[in-house]
Amino acid sequence: MNYTMSIKFENVTYEYPTDGSPVPAVRDVSLEITDGSFVCVLGENGSGKSTLAKLMNGLLIPTKGDVRVDGASTNTEDEDALFAIRKKVGMVFQNPDNQMIASIIEDEIAFGPENIGVPREEIEERITYALEAVGMTEHRHHTPYKLSGGQKQRIAIASVLAMRPNTLVLDESTAMLDPKGRREVLNVIRELNRQGITIVLITHYMEETVHADRVIVMNEGSIVMDGTPERIFGNTEAIRRYHLELPISDYLAEKLREAGLSLPHKIYDEKSLAEEICRSK
Amino acid sequence: MSIEVKDLTYTYSPKTPYAATALKGVSLHIEEGEYVGIIGKTGSGKSTFIQHLNALIRLQSGEIKVYDIDLNAKKPDLKKLRGTVGMVMQYPEYQLFDETVEKDVAYGPRNIGLSEGEIKERVREAIELVGLDFEEIRDRSPFELSGGQKRRVAIAGVIAMRPRVLVLDEPIAGLDPKGKQEILALVKKLKNAFSPTVIVVSHDMDSVAENCDKVALFADGEIARFASPREVFYDDELLARTEMDCPSVVKVVKELDKLGVSLPTRPVTKSELVAALTKGGRDE
After folding, report:
1. What mean pLDDT do residues A35-61 have?
2. Could you say which of A165, A217, B160, B181 would form a disulfide bridge with A90 (CB–CB 3.0 to 4.6 Å)?
3. Would you kindly state where each structural domain of chain B is located, as residue ranges?
4. Each residue of A204-216: pLDDT tens digit?
5. Does A20 lie at the interface with B, CB-CB under 8 angstroms?
């Protein structure tokens, strides 16, 4: 199989500017992200996850090493080149309220494409596409302020989609949402991934890794684990060491195994766990 | 009895075109020693409700009594109220303001006019209760601490008032798994220390199911149900109507049910589920 890797980190270190001696937030990270994959980044607070995310589209430039998006380095003086990178790799952050600028949703979504000089008719098309992709078509002419948190995040995602990115980086974008809002956003993300968009999801919710095909664990600025969810969560000792936890269904599976049920080791959600319990009886 | 709320109604921007009724005739009776979870969608009235409990929002209509403090009195004793009800707001770390941790935590006790000796003792106690080293951290700026430490310092500022009622608005939102466990353990510790009554607003149904004795489910400014987690999370009609999720444990049980496996009990916590399944296994 021939995979394409649009995002490449080559020995990347990043140090935030400080007065004293700088502590690297990201240390010597090398990483390739396969196009079309769904990658979850886990790690405790301060482990370097958000810094890693911001390095992906040139919001931060490496102190050492290089980040390349489709071969182009983010470390460039050429603003057009940087814009091209940011079009390809879109970011969605934690607080939806900090990401809204326009008073009408279609203007909010048109903001990015207008800024890069997309012709009017195409902007129309892009708005229609982006709103449909996040299931918010009927809100096109409404104001974003009255939406729920989940709806606001879907609009934030739509604004990024209007730039036609091939990668979406979400930095704890579900952290402030209620359960329904989280579910809405996750469904949108999964659907976009099915359509071929690469997803990088930074999260503290272990359950959100169920749909990922790759999990990266960061600790003190380094990547300490990298593999399928099954492999990562199969290593309970490492999970403890890096202050993570099992997704709750897997935690339950673990406890049930201890209590004598024979359940295979894999990543569960509530439904598949129930099915295995049934089978084991 | 620790808190008695009767027929509480509240409208934001009343008598304007923007009037929005956030609470409609809410009544709730909370006993001392209860650990109450408040759940409901964004905008269901949860935060408006808890802000009434220490008069951050002024009473428009209805009755509120907290122990012997009557908020319907002509001049309710707000100082006493705020010493009784400790409020940990959402993202409390954003409210840190003073130049040292010690001064920040001392702000509340100093405001209610305690002696310097008493203030010092309470600040030390509060900082140690939240699991930080008083001597090591007292002179540091709260702003140079890590996220989890900041949140704990902010909580120390509330518990330095030794409140009998502790109210927390989404205390674990945005924390990593370790931070979550630490805060949940801390709340338990405080409940045993001097805040027997705990009221927590949360979107995390798993932690509500694990920790709370009772759940108040808010929907559209009303309390749709105030009952045990078991009663609330097994009421499918109620959950559908209020668009609420249930804890993972309950989801597993409902999936099992669909597959024709019925359990002898209705578990809501992880250990209850394990017990129900392993016991059930032996019976067969």
Report:
1. 94
2. A165
3. 3-246, 247-284
4. 999 999 889 999 9
5. no
